[in-house]
Amino acid sequence: MKKGSGLSESLEDYLEVILDLEKTGKVARAKDIAEKLGVQRGSVTGALKSLEAKGLVNYAPYSYITLTPKGGKIAREITRRHAGLRDFLYKVLQVDAETANATACRMEHVIDATTMERLMSFFDYINTCPRTGPEWVENFTAHCSSKRHDRGECDQCLSACLARHRKKAGTMDEHE
Amino acid sequence: MKKGSGLSESLEDYLEVILDLEKTGKVARAKDIAEKLGVQRGSVTGALKSLEAKGLVNYAPYSYITLTPKGGKIAREITRRHAGLRDFLYKVLQVDAETANATACRMEHVIDATTMERLMSFFDYINTCPRTGPEWVENFTAHCSSKRHDRGECDQCLSACLARHRKKAGTMDEHE
DNA sequence: GTATTTTGTTTGGCATACCTAACTTTTTTA
DNA sequence: TAAAAAAGTTAGGTATGCCAAACAAAATAC
Fold first, then answer.
1. Overall CATH class of domain A9-74
2. Interatomic CA–C1' length for residue B103 and nucleotide D3, angstroms
3. Closest nucleotide to residue B65 (Cα to C1')?
4. Which has the closest alpha carbon to A21: A12, A30, A8?
5. What is the value of pTM for the model shown?
6. Residues of B in contact with A93 (CB under 8 A)
7. Domain parsing of chain B, residue ranges
8. Given an 8 Å threshold on Cβ–Cβ distance, is B119 in contact with A143?
9. Of the candidates B96, B102, B121, which has its C-beta nearest A144's C-beta?
C-alpha cells in the first residue's frame, strides 16, 4: 500500500481532468485536457497513449476519449481525495481557497488510503463532536491571529458549549 | 509561493539526508547517502554535482560533503516539516508510526509554507484548548472504530471536560 | 465541395533521475 | 609500502514527461 494507483502524479492528473471534462462537457478533447493541465497538445497525445496501454482510457488516434471502468475508478478516487483535502484545508485550517485547492491538488497524489480515511473521519469527528463543531473551528482563527489562547475566557467558552449542547439535546427530545 | 525551495523532491531528499548524517555521523559520505535514499552510489554523485551547482552543498570530487548555509537552511525547513507532519499524522490522526513517517516523507515536499504553518497552529490549538486536548484526541479512536458517536455520552463527556478545566484552573490559581 | 481553420499527431530535443558496469581514487590491511 | 578492499566517479543506457515545430486529419465556413 503506497500510493494506490501506482500511476505517476502526471498520469493521475490526466485521469482527473478527463473525468471532470466527462462530467461537464460530455466529451473530453485533447485540446481541453491540454488547457486544463497547462501543457501542450503534443504532450496530451503521449499521455493518452500511455493511459491507453494501461487500460485506463479508451483511445485511438483522432478518436474521442473516454475513461474505462478501471480508469474511472481511479479518477473518482483522486477526485474524492482532492475534494476531501481541499475541504479540510479550507474549512478547518482556513487556508485561502486558492492555496487550499492548489495544495490539495499536490497532496492528493501522495497521501495514502489509510491516512486519507483517517483525515476524513477526523473531519467528521470535529464537526459532530459537541465539544468542537463549527463554532470551535471558528475560534481557531482567533487562536491563529492572537498566537495565544486568552485563557480567561475558557471557562465561559466551555460553559456556553455545554449549554448549547443541552439546549440542542433538549430540542431534539421534543421532536421525539 | 509554491513549494518554497524550488528544488525537486529528489534533491530535497538529498539535503534532508545529508543534514541527518551531519547530525549523527559527523560526515556525510556518498555511500551512506545512497543507502539512506535507496539509490546507487552513481546516482549520488550526479545529485551532489547538481546541488553543488546550486550552491547548496560544499562538494568536489572525492571530497567530504557538507551543507552550505543556504543548503542547511532548506534542509532544516524540510526536516521541520517532516517532523511536524509526522506528529500530526501519528498523534492526531493516529495513523501507525510507519505509515505516518512514510506519508510525512512525501507530503513534506508538496505542502506550502502557509498550509504548514496553519497545520502546526491547529495542532497547538487542539492541544491547548480546554475543549479538546489529549483526552479529546484519544476519543477520536473510539469515533473511528464505532463509526458513530454515542450521543448519549456527550453530556457526560462535556460536563467532565468542564469539571476538569475548573479543577485545573483552580489548581493553577493556588500556585499564584 | 473545396478552402480555411481547428484539432490532433509525430518527430526530435531537452531535462531529470535513475540504473549498471567499468574505471579511478582513497583507504585499509597485511 | 604494495596489494586488496572500499568508496567514489564516469560513461552509456532507460524511462518519464515536457516542449516546439512540422505535419496530417477533421471540422467548419464559404
1. mainly alpha
2. 48
3. D8
4. A30
5. 0.91
6. 115, 118-119, 122
7. 9-74, 133-174
8. no
9. B121
Average pLDDT over residues A12-25: 94
Q: How far is A35 from chain B (nearest CA, A)?
A: 20
In Å, how far is B62's CA from the nearest CA of chain A? 35
Interface test with B, best of A129, A150, A156, A166 (most B CBs within 10 A): A129
Q: What is the mean pLDDT of residues B10-20?
A: 98
Checking if the pLDDT of A146 tops 80, the result is no
Please report the DSSP string for chain A in residue order: --SSS---HHHHHHHHHHHHHHHHHSSB-HHHHHHHHT--HHHHHHHHHHHHHTTSEE--TTS-BEE-HHHHHHHHHHHHHHHHHHHIIIIIS---HHHHHHHHHHHTTT--HHHHHHHHHHHHHHHH-TTSHHHHHHHHHHHHHHSS--GGGHHHHHHHHHHHHHHHHHHHHHT-
Give the pLDDT band of residue B172 (cuts 50, 70, 90).
Answer: low
Torsion of CA A146, A149, A152, A155, to 10 degrees: 140
